[in-house]
Amino acid sequence: MLNFRRSSVLGLLALALLCGCATSQPPADAFPRRFVFGQDTLAYSNELYWVYKVDPETGRTTHEPCEPKPTYALHCVPVARTARLFFQHARFETNLPPPDATTARTLVQQVLKRSPSVEVGKAERVVIPGYANLRDFSAAHEQLLKAECGSKWNSYFQRGNWRLIFPFSRRHQERMARRLVESIRRRRPPVVHLGDFPRLRLNHAVVLCDAREGDKEIEFSVYDPNDSSQPARLRFDRVSRRFYFPANFYFAGGRVDVYEIYCAWNY
To answer: What is this structure's pTM?
Structure first.
C-alpha cells in the first residue's frame, strides 16, 4: 500500500508539472513585430564618467574625467532592461490623450515591475496613451524614466554578473550566437552582457535588435544604451567562434565575451 501511495503521489506530481508546462506556453502575439531602433529605444543615453581616448597606432586607451560631471552614468543595465520591458509589456495608442504626470508615473511603474521572462499578448500590455512609441514617450518624460528605471546599483548587482568571471569556451559562444539568432527570429530582442574579464576594458549591457547571417560571420544590430543616436554592431566570427565589438568612443575594439541576461532565475 505504501508503494502504491508513493507511486500515486509521484504520478500526480508529474501530471501537475506536465499541465503546468502545457499552460505556460507564450501567446502567439507575444512579439508580433521586430524591435526597431529609433522607435523602441530611449531618446536619451547612458552617460560616462570618463572621456576615453584610443591611440590608433597602439590601441592603448587612456581616459580623463568628463566635464561637466555626468548626472546619469553607469545605467547601461537599467536602460537596456527598460527598453526591453516597454517593447514586451507596453503598447502605445496615439488616438488617446497623453497622460498627466501622475498617471504617466503610474504607467511607467506598471511596466517596469513586470518580468522580461513573462511573455504576454496585446490585451495584457500596459497602454501608454498619446505617444507613438518609446522614443517619443521618453523624450517627453526623460526625468521620469530616469528616476523610475533603476539606479546604477542595478548595473553593479545585476543577477547574471557572476557569470562574467568564469571562462567562456568557443563552444559556449557558438551556442550563444545560435541562441541569440533564434531569439531574434521570433522577434524577441535579447539583452546581453558584453565583457572582457579579467582585462575589464568593457563591462556593458546592450539589446540586440537584428541579425544578418553570412557564411563566415553573423552581424548583430545593437541598441547601445551609451549611444541613442545610431545602432552599433556586434560580430560573431564563425571560424574563431568568438564575438567582436568594434571600436567606438569608449572601447578600443576587440574580442568580447557575450551571454544573455534576464533569461533565467540566475541570469
So the answer is: 0.87
- pLDDT of the residue at 100: 97
Q: What are 165's three cell numbers?
A: 568571471
Closest Cα to residue 146, out of 203, 75, 48?
Answer: 75
List pLDDT tens digits, range 150-161.
Answer: 999 999 899 999
68 upstream amide cis, omega within 30 of 0? yes
Nearest to 149 by CA among 257, 255, 74, 70: 74
Cα Rg for the chain, rounded, in angstroms? 21
Mean pLDDT of 64-74: 90
The half-sphere exposure of 83 on its side-chain side, counting CA atoms within 13 A, is 34
Domain ranges of the chain: 50-156, 161-261
Three-state secondary-structure class, residue 73? strand
The answer, yes or no, to whether residue 119 has pLDDT greater than 80, is yes
User: What percent of the chain clears pLDDT 70, i.e. is strictly above it?
Assistant: 91
Rounded to an integer, what distance in angstroms lies between the CA atom of residue 101 and that of residue 103? 6
**7 in helix, strand or coil?**
helix
Q: Where are the beta strands (DSSP E) in the chain?
A: 50-54, 61-65, 90-93, 126-129, 191-195, 203-213, 217-223, 232-237, 242-245, 254-261
Instruction: Provide the mean pLDDT of the chain.
Output: 89
Write the DSSP string, 160-194.
Answer: TGGGGGS---HHHHHHHHHHHHHHHHTT---EEEE
Under DSSP, the state recorded for 122 is G
C-alpha cell at 22: 502545457
The percent of residues above 90 in pLDDT, for the chain, comes to 78
